[in-house]
Amino acid sequence: MAAAAPAAKKWRVDRSEGEETPDSAGLDLISGLPDAILGEIVSLLPTRDGARTQAVSRRWRPLWRSAPLNFAIDSRLSDQDRKRLIAFASTILADHPGPARRFSLCDFTLRHRYGKVDGWLRSDALSDLQELEFSYYIEPRVQWYPLPPSALRFAPTLRVVSLSSCHFPNEIAPSLRFPRLKQLTLYEVTISEDAFHGILSHCSALESLLLEGNSGISSLRLSSPTLRSFGFSSSSWNGYNATKLQEVVIEDAPCLERLLPLRPNSGPPTIRIIMAPKLEILGFLSNAISLLCLGKTKFQAIVLNIPWFLFQNMIAVNLTTTMRTVKSHQDKIMNSQKYDPLHPIECMELHLKTVVVRNYGGKWPDVNFAKFFVLNAKVLREMKFFARNICNEKWLANQHRRLQLKNKASQGARFIFKTAWGCDFILSHQAHDLSQSDPFGSSLCC
């Protein structure tokens, strides 16, 4: 008979070396982590799940109360039961001693609960709050309820603020200071022009600003030493007579990298850029934006998503403006500007290396302006056309002939055609995502 198989080795954890052996497969290694790390894990969980970790084991029981509170009042807290939601919310705030990392109250039906919401916001559990997300579910939609002033008591500690579907209490704006705020979103908010400019002047660390669908601001004049990204739209859902954004003026923004009209078909009619030396991306423009003034700033790099007809309405006070990359979303196209070799544009002569054309139709108005770059961009390396047509051989041959590719100014330039449809807006979260080098990348092609 064959010798009996050797007994399976008993695996174990060698604690002296800190090495894991097969016997450790069933051990709870997560519970061995330091309290600080476990508390961070708990604070990132949804509110209900975070509270439930108390039942995992004796080791986990105190962690939820010691971790910064992540408090989101939403359907996951109560399984769509409104009365249970309110009861759970009150219980959690009573049980947790604070501090809080996040408070989120979105699309909450107010009715007769204004006092209840105000009481939640005054809870000691929300001390040192870092993130605030607040919106009402409006009934009827034309009536905006005021944001409880208690929501703004956290101004000294807030890092992220998102307010939606509410009326901002303008009378307390002069006293507000946001020394740590890095990200601000106002969506369908009514706020006075003076109140907004006052708040903005006291945001000394702001990096990203998003304004969409608000009312009360007609002329926005932006000066910020820290702002890197600014997304905006002038459309307003708060009544037909609401004051809409008509003008955006970038007066002094030394760190601004992105200027992003979110819904260009709604304007604003005027955009003026006076001083933004680091501006790299200037997104989606349309016939609703009738004037674009590029001040006296010498831009290092700009990405444009513009309908070609708008080019003749662009005013560049300094014609040495440098643009290394151009991206275009086309809309209604009219006659293009002709290039005058006696008055050369520096970016066309020395810098422009990449052009991306989205929503390209291939008809003569499209062709004429695209040809402007083909025949005049002397250091162009690559030009991509995302076309609305199926790029078959016959269509491509016709485009090559119309664009006069044989007469291209840059002999090393490549021309690439792909079938893809473009969208006419940038997703709001892309305006805030500073880690994304190209905010148009995932929104332009369907």
UniProtKB/TrEMBL annotation:
Q: Which SUPFAM superfamilies match?
A: F-box domain (SSF81383), RNI-like (SSF52047)
**What top-level branch of life does the organism fall under?**
Eukaryota
Membrane-spanning residues: none
Coiled-coil annotated residue ranges, if any: none
Domain F-box residues, every copy? 33-73
InterPro entries, alphabetized: F-box-like_dom_sf, F-box_AtFBL13-like, F-box_dom, F-box_dom-containing, FBD, LRR_dom_sf, LRR_FXL15/At3g58940/PEG3-like
Region (Disordered), start-end ranges: 1-25
Name of this chain's protein:
F-box domain-containing protein
Annotated source species: Leersia perrieri
